[in-house]
């Protein structure tokens, strides 16, 4: 069995509101188009939180011929990896902007942490499942508004989110020191943890 395709996701969303499945994307069928818009919007929202599958660290952004640090068009968030008295890079208008010098230009490449929007069919299955179920609940809420169906869909959505978070934990290289709580304890005790 293959991972969920975008067409399968849209058909699952349509089934949640009692609509017949479609054979292709962009059919011109209004309900299918609404389902696809909700799926795309939900995917963008979920990916904006940042996951291991759409976050790249230590990415080098090279200045173009005008000195501007142009970001890829699918960038959701970018943050400069270095902060100094002369550099504090943040994303603005699809480019990197130095908040200290108030400039979009740089003579040298910079390193950034880059969060990008991935196509639905590039995502891991756990993310596809969560996005599909959340989209189905939103579609059902917007078109039918039945409370008992909302509860069933929320339960499925929550289970899918737990599965996505489990997948995130499994594939990420977290350790005890990646926890803010651990950092606070070490900081508060001066490193003398008993």
In short:
The protein is of the alpha+beta class and 194 residues long.
State the share of residues found in helices, binned by percent. Answer: 40-55%
SSE sequence, one letter per element: HHEEEEEHHH
Contiguous runs where pLDDT drops below 50 for at least 5 residues: none
Q: Major β-sheet, in short?
A: 5 strands, antiparallel
Distance between the termini: 51 Å
What is the beta-strand fraction? 15-25%
Pairing-aware structural class of the strands and helices? alpha+beta
Roughly what is the average pLDDT, rounded to an integer?
85
Based on the structure, what is the oligomeric state of the protein chains?
Answer: single chain
